[in-house]
Amino acid sequence: MLIINCPYCGPRPELEFSYAGQAHVARPADPSATGDDEWTAYLYLRTNTRGVHAERWRHARGCARFFNALRDTTTDRFRRDLSER
Amino acid sequence: MTGQRTTRGGRIDRTRPVSFTFDGRGYQGFAGDTLASALLAHGVRLFGRSFKYHRPRGLLAAGTEEPNALVTVSRDAARRTPNVQATQVEIYEGLVAESQNRWPGLGFDLNAVNSFLSPLLTSGFYYKTFMWPRFAWHRWYEPVIRAAAGPAHAPRLPDPDRYAQRFAHCDVLVIGAGPAGLAAALAAAATGARVILCDEQAEPGGSLLDEPAGTINERPAALWIDEALVKLGAQPNVTLLRRTTAFGYFPHNMVGLVECLTDHLATPAAAAPRERIWQVRAREVVLATGAIERPLVFPGNDRPGVMLASAARSYLHRFGVRVGSRIAVLAGCDEAYAAALDLHEAGPVSPSWPTSAMRRWARARRRHGLLVCRSLNAPPCWPRPVGGESAA
Amino acid sequence: MQKYSAWALLREAFGGQRGWQSQWRRASPAPEYDAIIIGGGGHGLAAAYYLAAEHGITRTAVLEKSWIGGGSTGRNTTIVRSNYLFDESARLYDHALDLWQDLAQVLNYNVMYSPRGVMMLAHGVHDVQVLKRHVHANRCNGVTNEWLSPEEAKAFCPPLNIEPNIRYPVLGAALQRRGGTARHDAVAWGYARAADALGVDIVENCEVTGIRRDASGAVAAVETSRGLIKSRRIGVSAAGFSSVVIGLAGVRLPIESFPLQALVSEPVKPVVPCVVMSGSIHAYISQSDKGELVIGAGTDAYTSYTQRGALHVNSHTLAAICELFPTLRRMRMLRNWAGTVDVTTDRSPIIGKTPVPGLYVNCGWGTGGFKATPGAGHLLAWTMAHDEPHPIVAPFNIERFRDGRLIDEAAAAAVAH
Ligand SMILES: Cc1cc2nc3c(=O)[nH]c(=O)nc-3n(C[C@H](O)[C@H](O)[C@H](O)COP(=O)(O)OP(=O)(O)OC[C@H]3O[C@@H](n4cnc5c(N)ncnc54)[C@H](O)[C@@H]3O)c2cc1C
Ligand SMILES: [Zn+2]
Fold first, then answer.
1. Is residue A8 exposed (0-12), middle (13-18) or buried (19+ Cβ within 10 Å)?
2. C267 interaction partners in chain B (CB closer than 8 Å)
3. Which residue lies with its CA nearest to atom 19 of ligand 1?
4. pLDDT-based confidence at residue B365 (cuts at 50, 70, 90)
5. Among candidates C268, C289, C306 on the partner chain, residue whose Cβ is nearest the Cβ of B82
6. B132 with B32, same domain?
7. What is the ipTM of this complex?
């Protein structure tokens, strides 16, 4: 069970969080004007990084807020100093 | 090798005899005995049968590294626990234990015919046969193999016991309460850190329990342990968990522990949980789990009567059991010398060790008049398991 | 290939076991191959075998970064079944199930395929509806599957607790009698041995670190920890590492990799006669031929390549198992481990061509690809040999995500082991 640093509440056990996937996946501003490939990328393509991964967590059973974090997916260690609001 | 109880010594309580049964026969041991030490004291040599060939097996070790002596312990019909190591079972009044993986009995096991088939049953033989006819694996062969495999029966009735769990946080988790673990816990506790110290044995002390002549800081080992425990007990920031095994190291220093609470008691309170799972989150983890002696490899080394030198010392010093009357000592480490001398003090021994080093031991040996065989290559030095044929 | 049989065992018994040949050569990579498979799991080895056996492409290499079968093939709980919901899936998984039937004879290696029955439990009204829908859909597709009442489920698996007052009461079950288990190591080794006998090079300790393309954009070679190896036909079958490997060619996949854990208990005499799965509480159990209870959990929540998971995931699974099988509560677990599983959004695999000419992929099997090993290998080989997707795998192309033609087994069952 990971320890996850919520930038609002501090380090808390993984049980309190929901994983919210890769960070910085922006929804195309105008979906109807977006081509199939771009829309597919938005919906389905993820970096699935082996290494330092930018991801989102939600402190669902705590303050309920979303935040970003960097985690190395080869060690599961967070870059603690880099979790951001 | 036929074990016997010494007249004094050991950490057992000779004023508190305990009766139990093994394969239906009544025996008596003392409080502080394990099933293994108590049976060994009665001259029992045969504890189990090997998985595949049903070769007779005795005790190899005295602790959790014991590979042979697996038994089923039952309190009642619903509380049958298979596959427990006899070396880990603390005896209590009325304990009922049975040997496993034999039919009809431990002494005479018909399945031992597998031994004669051993040239056919080489490792991985099952990948190479049982393929004809096509449907036969599932219908014919597999049921026979499945019925033969598994040394014991799973319980047949629902388990009536209760189990507890707890989450805990600490600054330092020390796994193993031998000299290193105790010293680590003392040092950490002195800084005010929250310490959890766990050990799978009933009694903290680890290898020191087998070294009554040993000293730490010029204090006799037993005294040093007692003082350490008193110090640790007086600190509110220290939790000492006995009979507690660390079973898994999970991400971010989460360690799983299982604490056995009632299996050693004759009459556990009805509502008492049997085991407690601890999920410990530690800032630092100290592994002070010690070392186990590596068995030497030679033909017949699995026969009853062949035992680790460290185990022989453990039986002698912790349980007051001399593992045999005529003992040959062979080991790949210093344990051999210590074992030879200790066992010699309780009767004659013929040690055999590989190298000529260790003047100190040579002197001690001369003082005690021990016989030494020198070279590993000299065939007469190979131990013939007493009473057992060796198998190539 | 040296033939394995009872006679061979007997002959060697008298010959002092000196006549056994090694099962496959320890091959060093040649400078060039007609086909390369990246990933020496069951899928990759099977693909190489079928390329050689059915398409005559024997100048083939399997490149494995560590030892063969050390990935998910050697870490899985070996459930084999084919009762998936959709028509496309039914064809795909039943194709694999057909190949399992005589695989031991084809490979001359006992893969211990054991159709002891796979029973999937329903714990609520929704589960009942979902599983009944599966039973009906499967029957329309000629896939065996039947509905059992709780009493019938207990008759099929006696240690199962069907008391109505437990946390996860059993309201019924779907049973596929043809489903069961097989021996994971034997599958990898059997394919490796048979492929090797046909001339395929099995190259272990050979990690692919780059994929080179020529001026036209087609694949030309792979860079590996053991040097450059040329080939114009490359199949990627790297399971949890698929996005990493395919990424070397600049292709992105709709895949994320998660840890998936399993455990085995101490060995005991037979108690659990079949496979029992519970999708809604993420627990499944069977008993190996050696007597160990083999228990699988659900995935951990986050993407990871550590092949390690958390204790609370196992505790949840074991709590569920203890409730469903109260006689097993005193059993102790011996080992626990995790693998990395490649999960697609629709929980269906991706097999076929990629936008890069000469580059083929077989991935996305997630938590449930062991059962498909013979089928996936067979169909990947066909696709690579013809440079055209086999009709069975055609719907499982990469473009389905763009075209909105998902084969949504995720929504259908929420479990895919
Ligand atoms: C705990 C667990 C339980 C499971 N239970 C089941 C089940 O009950 N039933 C079921 O059907 N499925 C199950 N699965 C899923 C199943 O194991 C997989 O889908 C299947 O084994 C995948 O086979 P594979 O040959 O594609 O992958 P793998 O066996 O993982 O092989 C891929 C290989 O690629 C190699 N590789 C990766 N990168 C490189 C590189 N750059 N260069 C060279 N080689 C590389 C890896 O080392 C690995 O050996 C389970 C999985 C897990 C982890
Ligand atoms: Zn918070």
1. exposed
2. 83, 149-151
3. C369
4. low
5. C268
6. yes
7. 0.94
Neighbours of chain C (3+ CB pairs under 8 A): A, B
Rg of chain B, C-alpha, whole Å? 23
Q: Are C2 and C15 in contact (CB under 8 A)?
A: no
Per-position b or e across C216-252, b if 16+ CB within 10 A of its CB = eeebbbbebeeeebebbbbbbbbbbbbbbbbbbbebb
Q: Is C145 in the pocket of ligand 1 (CB under 6 A)?
A: no
Q: Please check whether residue B281 lies inside any domain of the structure.
A: yes
Q: Are B122 and C15 in contact (CB under 8 A)?
A: no
pLDDT digits (tens, 9 = 90+) for C195-238: 999 999 999 999 999 999 999 999 999 999 999 999 999 999 99
pLDDT value of position B123: 84
Reading chain C (417 residues) residue by residue, the pLDDT tens digits are 999 999 999 999 988 899 999 999 999 999 999 999 999 999 999 999 999 999 999 999 999 999 999 999 999 999 999 999 999 999 999 999 999 999 999 999 999 999 999 999 999 999 999 999 999 999 999 999 999 999 999 999 999 999 999 999 999 999 999 999 999 999 999 999 999 999 999 999 999 999 999 999 999 999 999 999 999 999 999 999 999 999 999 999 999 999 999 999 999 999 999 999 998 888 999 999 999 999 999 999 999 999 999 999 999 999 999 999 999 999 999 999 999 999 999 999 999 999 999 999 999 999 999 999 999 999 999 999 999 999 999 999 999 999 999 999 987 665 545
Per DSSP, C122 falls in state: E
Where among B252, B287, B322 does a domain terminate? B287
Q: Tell me which residue range forms the domain holding B274.
A: 166-287
A56 burial level (CB within 10 Å; 0-12, 13-18, 19+): middle
**Superfamily of domain covering A3-82:** Folate-binding superfamily (3.30.2270.10)
Based on the fold, state whether residues B29 and B124 are members of the same structural domain. Answer: yes
Per residue in C12-40, pLDDT (tens digit) is: 998 889 999 999 999 999 999 999 999 99
Question: Would residue B356 count as lying in a domain?
Answer: no
Does residue C234 line the site of ligand 1, with CB under 6 A?
no
Inspect the interface and report whether the beta carbons of A44 and C310 lie closer than 8 Å: no
Burial of residue C32 (number of CB atoms within 10 Å: 0-12, 13-18, 19+): middle
Ligand 1 close to Cβ of residue C415 (< 6 A): no
User: Which CATH number goes with the domain that contains B20?
Assistant: 3.10.20.440
Q: Is C365 in the pocket of ligand 1 (CB under 6 A)?
A: yes
Same domain, B204 and B139: no
Token pair 């698929």 is at which residue? C242
Best C20, C110, C162 member to test B by mutation, with max B CBs in 10 Å, is C110
Own/partner contacts of C6-9, CB < 8 Å, gap of 24 or more, are: C6/B129, C8/B128, C8/B129, C9/B120, C9/B122, C9/B125, C9/B128, C9/B129
Could you please state the CATH topology (level 3) that the domain comprising C114-180+256-344 is classified under. Answer: D-Amino Acid Oxidase; Chain A, domain 2 (3.30.9)
| Confidence (pTM) | 0.93
Res. B382 pLDDT band, cuts 50 70 90? very low
Domain boundary among B121, B148, B175: B148
Contacts of A50 in chain C (CB under 8 A): 241, 244, 257, 305
List of chain B residues whose C-beta atoms are within 8 Å of the C-beta of residue C161: 158
Q: How many domains does chain B have?
A: 2
Domain assignments of chain C as residue spans, ordered by start: 6-75+184-253+348-412, 114-180+256-344
| CATH level 3 topology of C6-75+184-253+348-412 | FAD/NAD(P)-binding domain (3.50.50)
